[in-house]
Amino acid sequence: MNNPNGNGAPANQGMMNRPPPSNGLSKGANLFVREIRSRIDAYFKISVRNVRDTIPKSIGFFLVKQSQERLQFELYAQINKNENLTKSLGEPERVAEERKSLNATLDTLKKALKVLQRDPDITNTAFGEDELAEELRMEAERRRREAQVQKSNPNPNQMNQSMNQSF
Questions:
Q1: Residue pLDDT tens, the chain, 167 long
Q2: Dihedral, CA of residue 136, residue 137, residue 141 and residue 147, to nearest 10
């Protein structure tokens, strides 16, 4: 393969001697541009892959969440339709009555406390402070003894009632 110029040198040898076209950039700047371009391309590929992976995950999340809400609503509706299930899941009647009674007592005590805080002379005229403190101590001691007696000697009728209610 001779050069078309007729000098006898191979055709590609003349190209090797020629410097590459610079387009106004030096060889180092050209390498830098290529490196930056390859890094940007790699970053773009990673970003596209992340978005491609995230979209199905997001769709799945919202589908599962919607299904969960529907299922919860249906279960709640079925439980409310079944009166036996509602009754067995609810609190026993005696507990409800006791709770209502205790709430009524609590309300009464709160009202009494407000009255006493408004007019402290009422407590001084009705009881002396020493008498009131002694009466409160005696009442607390009596309740403690009653609780201990109930713990040590449970009533067989109460045990049977509690066992029957649990089944």
A1: 444 444 554 554 544 455 555 555 578 788 999 999 999 999 999 999 999 999 999 999 999 999 999 999 998 888 888 888 777 777 888 988 999 999 999 999 999 888 877 876 666 665 556 676 777 778 888 888 888 888 777 555 555 454 444 44
A2: 40
Residue-wise DSSP of 96-124: HHHHHHHHHHHHHHHHHHHHHHH-THHHH
- Report the alpha-carbon distance of residue 92 to residue 156 in Å, rounded: 19
Closest to 165 measured CA to CA, from 110, 97, 111, 87: 87
What number of residues does the chain have?
167
Residue 140, both tokens: 């607390």
Domain ranges of the chain: 23-92, 110-156
- DSSP H or E stretch at residue 10: none
